[in-house]
Amino acid sequence: MKFSSSFHVNTSLQFLVLKALIDKIRNRFGSLLQDKEIAGRDLLSADAATVIKAVCEVCQVSEIELNTSKRGISNIARDLTIYTLRTHSQKTLTEIGHVVGCENYSTVSSAIERMKKALDCEPKARQLYRKICLEIKVSQRQT
Prior knowledge:
The protein is mainly alpha-helical. It has 7 helices and no strands.
């Protein structure tokens, strides 16, 4: 029994050290995610659950509100989720659509374009995006 308990502790400790190392690398080199030539960049990517949690915390919405979509009504939290997943993960438009409950990849593409315009024009959107990037520990790409 002592052996298995010690083994479990060592394995858990190794996992925590490895996770801390990956987080440190992600903080330092996260802006390189846009470079398709870098091997292993998927290790630097933010996973969907982390992005969703960060957006919900920063925007103060529930996951249900995040996935709610009504035609003609803007959902900035949802658009931020889509944009962040596109810029900081390896997911395709279709995969992002599945994460946020969109069946059509063109809906995802439209949300990304809306968010690009909002980031250019609206200080509040930029502020929210920066907070989300800090929350997921991914360096924001310099523009």
